[in-house]
Amino acid sequence: MSERQPFMPFALPDIGEEEISEVAETLRSGWITTGPKAKRFEEDFSAFLGDDSLQSIAVNSATSGLHLALEALGIGPGDEVITTTHTFTATAEVVRYLGADVKLVDIDPVTLNIDARAVEAAVTAKTKAIIPVHYGGLSADMSAILDIARRRGLKVVEDAAHALPTTYNGRLVGTLASDATVFSFYANKTITTGEGGMLVTRDDALARRAKVMRLHGMSRDAFDRFTASVPSWYYEIVAPGFKYNLTDVAAAIGLHQLKKARAFAARRTQIASLYHAAFSRMPEVIAAPRPPAGELHAWHLYPLRTTARSRVSRDRLIELLFARGIGCSVHYIPLHQQPYWRDRYGLTSAMFPHSQRVYETQLSLPIYTRMSDADVQRVIDAVSRAL
Question: Of the N and C termini of the chain, which has fewer Cβ atoms inside 10 Å?
C-alpha cells in the first residue's frame, strides 16, 4: 500500500560526489570564504548564459541580489516598484528595504505570471521599476513588460529565482534586455548552493556598485587584497554596504551543479510531461501551464489546480496526499493575503481575483531530479485516488 511507502518530500537537492569532492578540496585549501571558487563560479555562470557582455555577481541569496540591483538603480523613498502579488515576500520586501513603496498587480489566469496589462495600468508618476517573476520556471511576457518599460522610462529587474534555464523567444532568461536578472540557488531550486544567488547585468555601473555594496561598501574585497603580488592591505569604505557575498564553500557546490543544469532541466521536463499526460485527462484538475512550442520551461514547480468538478478541496487534497506519504506545498499565499502587505496598502482579495482563485485551488506537486518514473506514477495514482 502507498501509505506504507517511504515519505516522498516536496523537494530534494541532487548532490553528487563531484560537489562533495569540490567542497572537501575547498575546505582543505584554507580559502573558505569568498575567493577563487566564487570568482570561477561567476565566470562559469556568464559562460553558461553565453553572452560576453554580461557580468555575473555571486551573492548569498536571490533576496540579496534583488536588493543590490534595486539599490544600484537608485530606488529609494518616494519611488514605487510594480510586482506581482503572486510571489514570495522576498520579491517585494527588498523594495521596502530601500524605503520605496510596492505596487502589487494581478496575474494572468492562464500562465500564472504577472499580467502586463495590469502593470501598464498601475504605472504612475512615482513608478521607477518593474520586477517580473518567472513563476514556476515559465517566462513572463517579457516583450510586453520591456515595451512598457521603454515607453514609460522604467527599470526592469527580473526575479528569475525559478528560471534556470528558462527561455523566452529562444533566448535564455538572464540575456534579455532588462537592467538586471537575479537567480536563486536555494536548496529546492533547479540548481543549488544550499543558500545563494546570482545577479546578472550588462550595466557596468550597476555591476560596480553591486560589487562594492555586496561586501560592506569596501573599495576592494578580501580576495583582491589578500592575493595581490605586492602588499595590498589598504581599502576604503565608500558606502554603508551589506554582507551579501557568496562563500567558496557554497560556490564549490555551484560549480558542479551548473555543469548539470541542462541535464537537471531535461529530467524535470520529463517529469512534467508525465504529469501533464495524466492530469490533462482529469476534469477535476487543471494541469500546469506549459511553455510555447520550442521554449524551455525550468519546471521549478508543477502547480496543479482543482476545478469545480473536484469532489475535494485543495486543502483536503493536500491532506489526502500527505496521508499517502507525499509532500506538497502551495505557491503562494499571495502577498495581498499577508498581514504586512494587506494592512500597509489596504489590499483586498477582490483587487486580485485571478491570484486569489489560484491560491484557493493550487497545490505544488513534488518535482525534482531524484524522482524515478515510479515515484512520479505514485504521485499521479495518489492524486487520482484522492480525487
Answer: N
